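Hmm, what's this shape?
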Amino acid sequence: AVRLAAFISQRQMTASYLSAMLPNLPIGRQDFHKIRTAGDLYIDKTEHIHRLITGGGGYYFLARPRRFGKSLTLSTIKELYSGSRELFEGLWVEDHWDWSERRPVVHIQFNEIDYAYQSLTVALQKMLIRQGKDFDIQLEGDTIPELFKDLLTQLTAKLGRVVLLIDEYDKPLIDFLTKDKLPQAFENQAVLKSFYSVIKSSDNLIEFLLITGVSKFSKVGVFSDLNNLYDITLHPRFATLTGITQEELELHFGAAIDAHEAETGKTDLRGKLRTWYNGYSFHGGKDRVYNPFSILSFFGSWEFRNFWFSTGTPTFLIDLLRERHYYKFEQVEMGPSAFESYQLDRLETIPLLFQTGYLTIKEYDPEYQLYTLDYPNKEVKDSMLQYLVAAFRHGNVYETTPAVVRLAKAFDAGDLEAVREQINDLFQTIPHQLFVAAKENLYHALIHLLFTYLGQYIQSEVNTLKGRIDSVVETDDHVYVLEFKLDGSAEAALAQIQERGYLEAKRSAVKKVTAIGVNFSSSEKGITGWAVAK
């Protein structure tokens, strides 16, 4: 008890010491004014913002995953145009901005518009009227286009051309993407189309426009008239406008990382941070950045956890992937047109995964204009696999990780009976009628997902090319080569391993090699054959 108390006390002292070395962390905060007045950490992005504002385009669109700094970017621009110089003290832009020039800012945040218990039309009308009151303007008109146009017209006459900032433009669409709610999504799409149509005819009233969101829906569906909207989502000059670069991480957290390594005796914290939370690229696989929410959350707790994924599980996306039996996301190749946009009723899987942050650009071949996408980091891959395994087996998410860890421990211990039992249990929660209807798809999906997820805890690989080993699992002293058959025989699977030389490919001078042939019965929904050769 004394030793335990001393250990806990030491841990608390260490955590307190490290926390003292860190600035105040604005975890989840997106208001520039509140962050600066509270003395919280602000990663200085004002040079990027200045470059955007003075770039000459005027009308911009930026898509980024959720919790990636879009709202903070708009909030910063709002304070810049409002002339709040005291908030920018010490930042790059302080000496590069004409503080005498101010503009009225209309800041529309769709996450603060209540359309859940009233129609989007009514919610937008109330929002526009409220915006007018903020500037002591009484709006005239009944429809959304009339109110919006009058707001821009009166503001320009009173205070000068308007800066228009629209955050999460697509939230009224994303919130209704499930099949049963899709009619509401189309209704909201029509409302948004009439709302944004005002912008095109108000060019003489708008000084600067930035629209942000997670997804890029069809311009025909939402931005029908905004053909001068400049998409900077993949523009190299703005690749690090949001997110935290390695240089920025070192500037603000380098000393604390060094102190943590000295205290714990571990020397590769930076490498582990990159593996867990870095990896996002919005420029051809270059200029990689950390997820801001995740990396700040880590320094708030000094624990490696799946922070970002847990803040908003994409239920409709997981359901969509299961419905389409889509589960292989590694090293996906696609052309540039896939990034353009998609329709509400024709959601394209890979572009959707990219735009929502579950895939990122790993490589780009400019000669052939070919992008290679993959999971950005361990946090996203681990979480996505956890949810996919649960979805495909119709089980609970919280049961997935313990089951896979038990499988990893069974391989580590060389307990093949426990390995068999864990693999078998994977299929038991699937409703029989569903498995019979899609046995091939479900079988292959679960085997692939199981061993891919296993690779998060123990060295494991899944080969999908014809004629390759189904799966290889490697522990400190053993290599297991597995071949699976559906409605065949374990002996045939074992023979295939031996005949095709799979064992020779994995033979090791220091590790034992075991071949395992597995037969899975679709009628019994479980393993009915198991053959082993050492």
